[in-house]
Amino acid sequence: MRIEHIAMYVNDLDSARDFFIKYFNATSNDGYHNKTTDFRSYFLSFDDGARLEIMKKPVMEDCVKDLNRTGYIHIAFNVGSKEGVDALTKRLKDEGYEVISGPRTTGDGYYESCIVGIEGNQIEITV
């Protein structure tokens, strides 16, 4: 068994799509639009076959995204090397994204950093 995809609602669908394309080499489908409900979505695919569905609908509740809460908390991307973690973390920081940890080796042996990415969502960059 494998996870087919992960989904997240966003406020700015095109900016979220562009973020994942720019920083994580995602490829996007042409999008879906339900004209009756005005629901819109894109499926983003990554090199290893993982997929992320980003979605938007006209009325959504936009709660505060406390990083110390229960529930889904981050999405992690393996960039293949420590140098890749360092380079992408620096690039994101230089372009205005908050680095909240790392790059560092964690107690359980991962080399990683965590940033606050698109719309306040945490993203882990790891090997």
Pick out its properties.
four-stranded mixed sheet; 2 domains; 2,3-Dihydroxybiphenyl 1,2-Dioxygenase, domain 1; 2 helices; 20% helix; globular; 127 residues; alpha+beta
Fold-level CATH name of the largest domain? 2,3-Dihydroxybiphenyl 1,2-Dioxygenase, domain 1
Q: State the end-to-end CA separation.
A: 23 Å
Number of helical elements: 2
Helix content range: 10-25%
Mean pLDDT: 94
Secondary-structure element string: EHEEEEEHEEE
Question: Structural class from helices and strands?
Answer: alpha+beta
Q: Which geometry do the CA atoms define?
A: globular
The top-level CATH class of the largest domain is Alpha Beta
Radius of gyration based on Cα positions: 15 Å
What does this entry look like structurally?
The chain is an alpha+beta fold and 127 residues long. The chain has two domains: 6-56, Roll (2,3-Dihydroxybiphenyl 1,2-Dioxygenase, domain 1); 74-126, 2,3-Dihydroxybiphenyl 1,2-Dioxygenase, domain 1, CATH 3.10.180. Helices cover 20% and strands 36% of the residues. The protein is built from two helices and nine strands. Strands 1, 2, 3, 4 and 5 form a five-stranded mixed β-sheet that branches. The protein is globular and about 50 Å long. The mean pLDDT is 94.
Brief synopsis:
The chain has helices spanning 13-24, 82-94, and strands spanning 6-9, 27-28, 32-34, 39-45, 51-56, 74-78, 98-105, 111-116, 122-126. It is α+β, with helices and mostly antiparallel strands and 127 residues long.
